[in-house]
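Pasting as-is:
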Amino acid sequence: MESVNIEKIWKAYDQKLEKSLQVNQKLVEEVQTQKAKSKLKSLILGKVALLILCLGWAIFLGVVFTTAVRISFVFLAVSAGVGVITTLLFIFYYIYHIVLIIEIDNSESIMETQEKLATLKSSTLQLIRYEFIQAPFYTTWYLDILLRHNPGNLFWFIQIAVIAALVLLTGWWIKNVSIRNADKKWFKWFTDGTGWESVVKAGEFMREIEAFKRDV
């Protein structure tokens, strides 16, 4: 009789303990998810501002491009055309990121939040990777005018060297901007202000949920 009572007590204790763990897990999930969402929501205003700036820049470059084509300035037309294309690419990414952040904020399941957060992280890395694509073309837009004044050999030597250096730098940047280099100082310095740190921090909040589940 006594053993039966002890067994009932243990069973009741186990049920209470399991219920307590479930409640704690639920609280951890809610708190960490809200932290992640709050961290991402802080990025929206900055991305909207960048979106507006990019729209204005794209319009300006579009006007430059059409003018350059009309007056037959080939180098200026190519430089402005590349600028328009890459700026439109940035605009797409900013809109996509804003939509993702809103979807994450509205998501109710942990799995959905984690999936969209992973997508946002990957997409943010791609955007950072493409930041320097325009760089070589900032050194070519003025060549149409200079060609009419017959610049000397020294100018062309310096011009070609600068373009080659920027092309190599752009190639190096595209190749090396990846998760494996995310902890390096140069990566952190260049990505400061891009929103990358906030996305990573949001991911850490979500991983703490998985760590809590494993410990339980």
